[in-house]
Amino acid sequence: MLEFFNTHEEIFLYSTLIGLVGLIGSLIVVPWILIKIPSDYFLANQRKKCPWGNCPPILRLVVLVIKNIIGVVLILSGVIMLFIPGQGILTIIGGIILMDFPYKYKIMRKIIKNSNILRFINKLREKVNQEPLKV
Questions:
Q1: Contacts within 8 Å (CB) and 24+ apart, 38-46
Q2: Which end of the chain is more exposed for a tag (fewer CB within 10 A), N or C?
Q3: What is the pTM of this model?
């Protein structure tokens, strides 16, 4: 067993570094995302039009691709953090918020309606003088 670790030392080093970057990144990015959501975001039955909807199509595509890549990275990091130290569930929520896919808004409303998740997010928002999320 020890021989396996010695022969694959680089893989374990890179895995550890990726985990640390994901942890530190999620500690910064996820709270920022949760704070920036408008307090009435989840009140509407349908999602509001995105702010860059009037931009040139190529710019919208670039923003969409970047957002989805960051969202996928956050979701994968969140899943990993369910098993290692970190804020896994919040990181997954932050990733889902960033991504664009069909029925995302309905899924997010169901997740946010969980009283424990909503309470935690609203405590975070309260610390930076943001209105609580309304659902």
A1: 39/125, 39/130, 39/131, 39/132, 39/133, 39/134, 40/134, 41/133, 42/108, 42/109, 42/112, 42/133, 42/134, 42/135, 43/134, 43/135, 46/105
A2: N
A3: 0.59
Identify the residue whose tokens are 């003088």: 129
Q: pLDDT-based confidence at 48, cuts 50/70/90?
A: low
The type of residue at 28 is I
Contacts of 25 (CB under 8 A, 6+ apart): 77
Q: How far is CA 10 from the centre of its chain?
A: 28
96 close to 107: Cβ distance less than 8 angstroms: yes
